[in-house]
Amino acid sequence: FTYFDSNYNLYARHFHLNVLDDRCYLVHNLGDYNSNKVLSPSCNIVNKNTLDLINKYNVKAAYLSSELSIEQMCTLGKVKTNYSKGALVYGASLMMVTKHCFISKLKSLNRTNCGSCTLNNYSIVDEYNNKMNVYARCGECPELIIRNYKKINLIKNIKKLLNNGINRFMFVLTDETITELDSLKKSIMNNI
């Protein structure tokens, strides 16, 4: 999620949304799964076998892998399950969640909850000069989230996904400007 100050300057931060309602949690790792959870796109749900496997558990909803094509999502959307299926339709997909804060280690702070990750914008640059932003996982320091530099935009396919059994949509907002958010809102309204 993003937030703005009174001068409309954008401060990009990813806040890990733990509680979707009083009984439902977003899970990024199948090892963290227990009853009545929502599985995120990083759980790598890519085929009917995966859908069948998690159908045996008390899953509230499952987001399909963001690596799938629209056609593959539509095919999986038609598979009968005991839970609803969703798709990441806009934003930077999750690349990595660290279990140790490399920022505090690089700064030789040698402590958790130092706050450096929430006070400054950090990024990792690959060999092709692609910048991947690093976000603090709110309330769970020392964990950091690294998001892909390339954003997914499947908004124009929302109706097609809805018609094929996908009924949950995820939007990951990180560094959008107010103008971009207005444009995004119009695009969503034109495609639902």
Structural class: alpha/beta
As a percent range, the share of helical residues equals 10-25%
Number of distinct helices: 6
SSE order: EEEEEHEHEHHEEEHEH
Q: What's the N-to-C terminus distance?
A: 22 Å
Please count the beta strands (DSSP E, at least 2 residues each).
11
Which radius of gyration do the C-alpha atoms yield?
Answer: 18 Å
Topology:
Blueprint: E1 2-4, E2 10-12, E3 19-21, E4 24-27, E5 37-39, H1 48-55, E6 59-63, H2 70-77, E7 84-97, H3 102-106, H4 116-119, E8 122-125, E9 131-136, E10 144-153, H5 158-163, E11 166-171, H6 178-190
Parallel strand pairs: 4-5, 5-6, 6-7, 7-11
Antiparallel strand pairs: 1-2, 3-4, 7-10, 8-9, 9-10
Which features characterize this protein?
alpha/beta, 192 residues, 11 strands
Tell me what you see in this structure.
The protein has about 190 residues and is α/β, with parallel strands linked by helices. Helices cover about 25% and strands about 30% of the residues. It is built from six helices and eleven strands. The chain starts with a strand and ends with a helix.
Structure summary:
With 192 residues, the protein is α/β, with parallel strands linked by helices.
